[in-house]
Write a structure and sequence with these properties.
With 151 residues, the chain is mainly α. It is 62% helix and 0% strand. The chain is extended.
Amino acid sequence: MVAVSAPPRRSAHNRPALITLVIVAALACLALGWWQWERFESASGTGQNLGYALQWPLFAGFAVFAYFRFVRLEREADEPADAASTRTRMKQAAPREIPAGILPERPTAARSEDPVLAEYNRYLAELHADDIDVQVRKAGLDARDTERSAG
């Protein structure tokens, strides 16, 4: 009988392609930052070039940060978790409700049975219906004729 074992886990730092990608990306960002700095210092340089010169090193730093964050998250996912740490993580990740009384109450619209307002709304609804009828007739359609001929 042949025993099959799981392939050995690669070390989180043993990823030559990913490390190379991060280094190339960071160096490219730093080179672009240097190029923008030289453009800023030239006779035709503007403030926009200065902004880019300061922005590109931040992109390089983000590439390095993202790599280390990826390694840390992968390492945490590989660690065996016992029940106590799982419960602690679940408590931290569980959504919490906002306690009552912290937020101000929403204002409610005052409901008034104003007969004048109700009559005005009915008048506006009639005007709208009449306007729709006029538009239907102008388009050559008959609103009462809902059957279509088959041809």
